[in-house]
């Protein structure tokens, strides 16, 4: 492995390369495309949560102006279910029978000449149901329970013996609600067929998954399918899967033999593209009087749909965060009549960390120790159950530098002891140990006759900065000015890329780009290997370096030549090379693979008479490995923090307990932070490149969110003496 | 002022029951004659009939601000406006802000301060920010926070959006 050297381009806080397109409105999101002869689709959704469709009458809808077709379970063809993916099984194929498994299930798709006509006709479809009693409650005794769904339950030591030794045991039940991803971009699909081949624009975080899935579902070769997503209006996990509406749009386009566009409505976004499922967690932590953790037991249960998979091991964080000898973690899922849950920014970690880091705070108060001190005292110097050194871990520096920047030492320990006029002031903190995730990825790099480079991979940039950081990385690795490099993505015809998810894309793609660029330099050396005119004749890759569009011998810039000269002398238009990355293996490296770490410090202000809560300040200290672009990485942490504030204080998808209807499925009713709710915040990056990969990044897309809810809850306790274990924290919980 | 004739939908496709209206929209200084289904919103007229896809649809319920355009100098959420009611009004969209490839100062400030991530809310945020200054409502941090609160950014770029606006007001 050749480790990336630090240079001029990587790390710099450059403006996004796609900024001009985004600020002018020229960036094209899936629903911005239009094609001649394009028809428009609208969905009909079930109004019950469980049962069967007794009858469905489409007569009026079919007769409505402009309507081209209406497809229901009575007329839909048999469709294969999508394949197993990195994220588990695919969602069930739509319209395959008369069963209703959740409220909002698509029961028909209407296609018309215009969107207005399609929407109107969709309202004319009449369904009659035979309703069954829906299971909607996580505690429903009838619900099927899936034990240890991911095989991630852990046990080390003996927790009962641990609790027996403890001087202090704290125990609590924490609940987190359903949250809905709600990327601002309404998810859209445009599909058109040309014979047996298919082009699809989709709001996806993973174009190759759409291609592979549609090939399986429609039984056509992958090579005939092209999926495009150069810009996506956010995702936060909602674009990771091939949802039923995507399949229906493709089906409708085949039916009417025209391009068809479907744009989900905001209410449909609450039932069609996943959500963070609710959870109930029991956590019990034992410690000695001196603050040594001796036992942690963490049980979590989450809801999941009747016939779908979702990855939410909420208790797992307790297994990896502290050097505690006796730990037991257990996860379960309850199958309910709910829309399919799915990953939402920091799945599982967002919920589990709230319970764990609140409980650690309780232990600190119980033993009379500073919450910062107890975390340093129980610091996991090595991976707690692999017993390997971390590939990198600067969590201690996160705590210390974050505390310094925040002014943690000004905190007086007694709850309610800090005031500013009518405001009770509370300081809270939480730590984060985010899991490592990386999967294989490919990229292709070319240098052309004019000396410019073109690098591409079928990844997506959902706002993460992928376009920008990969441009920087390629420029660094090829020794080119950033203006001479174009990085492209969002097209399934490009080399394979995994999903933008799990905080794993930058690592996977960065290392693939690294491999492609290194191989490309070697290709140039191969061309001049026997070239008597070249100062690089017989040079090996490790004997050269690249700067200013030239390859030259290390330490001797005079002994080299430019890409342009090599290509011209050998009459080549361009040279290209493919690169791939595979995840590092802990056993081979003798290191535990590290994700990002973080320490979050929050100041809240509470008006005890009105129950008002204001987040006044947030400091996030993050070990994200190598930071490729300080500006976009900072934005990731700020954005994650806003997501964390939202989880802590605002978001709760409300399900009607009788009908299963989402009762707040609009932006007027589903609360999210607006500008005035969010303070200015500070972000510090500490630590250095991770040792496990050449590029050394660790992914910063999710670590920003995790820990904010616990830090706010801990700050509320410090301000009020009230321990709140149910999210979101609302005004009624704060009236003193 | 330019006049552009936009091809109306072919008569054969027009549904008999849905009333259509003839409307002339003045968008970014250009008059467009359109024959529209009376249900077409100003947002859909801009996006689907005039090809101006800068204004975005985030909720279609007037709650997110992604569709913000300027009408006679004021901010309007174009998803809640029927196109037929906007004849004779001066409509300005994000597409008009940059001239000959030169970014408007607000656009440049958004780029410098990384005041967006996915970029979907950005045209609406920028139109709102430009109007805010024109309305005299960007005079303090508190004002900016309050009067930009009709534009949701789900990526959470709010602090950077404020920094961009502050920079422009500081210059202005």
TrEMBL record, chain A:
Classification via Pfam families: Ald_Xan_dh_C, MoCoBD_1, MoCoBD_2
Entry keyword set: Molybdenum, Oxidoreductase
InterPro entries named among the record's database cross-references: Ald_Oxase/Xan_DH_a/b, Ald_Oxase/Xan_DH_a/b_sf, Ald_Oxase/xanthine_DH-like, AldOxase/xan_DH_MoCoBD1, AldOxase/xan_DH_MoCoBD2, AldOxase/xan_DH_Mopterin-bd_sf
Superkingdom as given in the UniProt entry: Bacteria
GO-annotated molecular function: iron ion binding; oxidoreductase activity
SMART domains registered for this protein in UniProt: Ald_Xan_dh_C
Residue ranges annotated for the Aldehyde oxidase/xanthine dehydrogenase a/b hammerhead domain, each copy included: 24-133
PANTHER family recorded: ALDEHYDE OXIDASE 1-RELATED, XANTHINE DEHYDROGENASE
Protein name per its UniProtKB record: Xanthine dehydrogenase family protein molybdopterin-binding subunit
From TrEMBL, chain B:
SUPFAM superfamilies on file: 2Fe-2S ferredoxin-like, CO dehydrogenase ISP C-domain like
Keywords for this protein: 2Fe-2S, Iron, Iron-sulfur, Metal-binding, Oxidoreductase
Region named Disordered: 1-20
Molecular function via GO: 2 iron, 2 sulfur cluster binding; metal ion binding; oxidoreductase activity, acting on the aldehyde or oxo group of donors
Annotated pathway: Alkaloid degradation; nicotine degradation
Annotated PROSITE patterns: 2FE2S_FER_1, 2FE2S_FER_2
CDD domains the record matches: fer2
InterPro entries: 2Fe-2S-bd, 2Fe-2S-bd_dom_sf, 2Fe-2S_ferredoxin-like_sf, 2Fe-2S_ferredoxin-type, 2Fe2S_fd_BS, Aldehyde_Oxdr_Iron-Sulfur, Beta-grasp_dom_sf
Record keyword Transport present: no
Domain 2Fe-2S ferredoxin-type: 21-97
Record's protein name: (2Fe-2S)-binding protein
């Amino acid at each position: 492995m050749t480790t990336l050297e630090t240079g001029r381009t990587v790390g710099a806080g450059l403006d996004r390369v796609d900024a001009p397109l985004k600020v002018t409105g020229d960036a094209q999101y899936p629903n911005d495309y239009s094609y001649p002869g394009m028809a428009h689709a609208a969905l009909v959704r079930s109004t019950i949560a469980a049962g069967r469709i007794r009858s469905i009458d489409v007569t009026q809808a079919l007769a409505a102006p402009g309507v081209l077709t209406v497809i229901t379970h009575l007329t839909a063809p048999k469709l294969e279910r999508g394949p197993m993916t990195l994220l588990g099984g695919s969602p069930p194929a739509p319209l395959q029978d008369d069963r209703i498994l959740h409220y909002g299930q698509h029961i028909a798709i209407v296609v018309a000449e215009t969107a207005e006509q399609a929407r109107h006709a969709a309202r004319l479809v009449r369904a009659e149901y035979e309703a069954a009693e829906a299971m909607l409650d996580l505690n429903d005794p009838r619900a099927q329970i899936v034990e240890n769904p991911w095989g991630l339950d852990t046990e080390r030591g003996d927790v009962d013996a641990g609790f027996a030794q403890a001087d202090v045991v704290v125990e609590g039940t924490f609940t987190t609600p359903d949250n809905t991803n709600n990327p601002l971009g309404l998810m859209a699909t445009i599909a058109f067929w040309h014979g047996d081949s298919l082009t699809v624009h989709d709001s996806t975080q993973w174009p190759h998954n759409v291609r592979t899935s549609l090939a399986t579902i429609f039984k056509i070769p992958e090579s005939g399918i092209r999926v495009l997503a150069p810009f996506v209006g956010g995702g936060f996990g909602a674009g990771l899967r091939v949802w039923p509406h995507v399949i229906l749009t493709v089906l409708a386009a085949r039916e009417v033999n025209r391009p068809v566009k479907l744009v989900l409505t905001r209410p449909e976004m609450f039932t069609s593209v996943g959500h963070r499922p609710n959870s109930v967690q029991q956590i019990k932590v034992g410690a000695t009087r001196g603050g040594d953790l001796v036992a942690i037991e963490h049980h979590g249960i989450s809801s999941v749909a009747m016939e779908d998979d979702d990855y939410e091991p909420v208790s797992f964080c307790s297994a990896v965060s502290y050097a505690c000898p006796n730990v037991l973690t257990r996860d379960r899922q309850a199958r309910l009549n709910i829309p399919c849950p799915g990953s939402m920014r920091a799945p599982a970690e967002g919920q589990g960390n709230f319970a764990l880091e609140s409980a650690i705070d309780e232990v600190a108060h119980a033993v009379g120790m500073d919450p910062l001190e107890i975390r340093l005292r129980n610091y996991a110097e090595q991976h707690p159950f692999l017993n390997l050194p971390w590939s990198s871990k600067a969590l201690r520096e996160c705590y210390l530098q974050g505390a310094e920047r925040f002014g943690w030492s000004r905190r007086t320990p007694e709850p309610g002891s800090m005031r500013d006029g009518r405001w009770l002031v509370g300081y809270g903190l939480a730590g984060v140990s985010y899991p490592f995730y990386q999967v294989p990825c490919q990229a292709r790099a070319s240098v052309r006759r004019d000396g410019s480079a073109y690098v591409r991979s079928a990844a997506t940039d959902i706002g993460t900065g992928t376009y920008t950081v990969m441009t920087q990385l390629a420029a660094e690795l090829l020794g080119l000015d950033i203006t001479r490099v174009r990085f492209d993505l969002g097209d399934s015809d490009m080399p394979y890329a995994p999903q933008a998810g799990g905080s794993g894309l930058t690592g996977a793609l960065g290392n693939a780009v690294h491999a492609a660029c290194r191989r490309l330099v070697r290709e140039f050396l191969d061309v001049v290997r026997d070239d008597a005119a070249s100062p690089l004749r017989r040079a090996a890759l490790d004997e050269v370096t690249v700067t200013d569009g030239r390859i030259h011998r290390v330490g001797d810039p005079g002994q080299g030549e430019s890409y342009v000269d090599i290509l011209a002398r050998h009459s080549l238009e361009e040279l290209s090379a493919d690169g791939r990355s595979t995840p590092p293996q802990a056993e081979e490296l003798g290191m535990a693979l590290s994700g990002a770490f973080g320490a979050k410090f929050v100041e809240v202000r509470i008006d005890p008479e009105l129950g008002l809560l204001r987040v006044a300040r947030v400091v996030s200290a993050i070990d994200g490995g190598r930071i490729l672009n300080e500006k976009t990485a900072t934005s990731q942490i700020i954005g994650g923090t806003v997501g964390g504030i939202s989880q802590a204080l605002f978001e709760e998808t409300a399900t009607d307990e009788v009908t299963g209807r989402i009762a707040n499925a609009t932006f007027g009713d589903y609360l999210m932070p607006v500008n005035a709710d969010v303070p200015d915040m500070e972000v510090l990056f500490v630590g250095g490149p991770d040792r496990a990969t050449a590029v050394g990044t660790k992914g910063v897309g999710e670590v920003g969110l995790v820990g904010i809810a616990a830090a706010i809850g801990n700050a509320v306790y410090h301000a009020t003496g009230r321990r709140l274990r149910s999210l979101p924290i609302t005004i009624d919980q704060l009236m003193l | 002022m330019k006049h552009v004739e936009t091809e109306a939908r072919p008569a054969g496709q027009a549904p008999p029951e849905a009333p259509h209206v003839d409307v002339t929209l003045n968008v970014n200084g250009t008059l467009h004659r359109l024959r529209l289904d009376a249900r077409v919103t100003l947002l859909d007229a801009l996006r689907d009939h005039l090809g101006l896809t800068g204004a975005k649809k985030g909720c279609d319920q007037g709650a997110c601000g992604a569709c913000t355009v300027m009408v006679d100098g004021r901010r309007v959420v174009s998803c809640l406006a029927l196109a037929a009611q906007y004849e004779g009004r001066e409509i300005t969209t994000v597409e008009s802000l940059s001239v000959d490839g030169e970014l408007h100062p607000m656009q440049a400030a958004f780029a410098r301060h990384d005041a967006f991530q996915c970029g979907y809310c950005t045209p609406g945020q920028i139109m709102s920010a430009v109007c805010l200054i024109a309305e005299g409502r960007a005079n303090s941090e508190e004002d900016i926070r309050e009067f930009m609160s009709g534009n949701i950014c789900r990526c959470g770029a709010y602090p950077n959006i404020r920094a961009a606006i502050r920079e422009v007001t500081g210059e202005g």
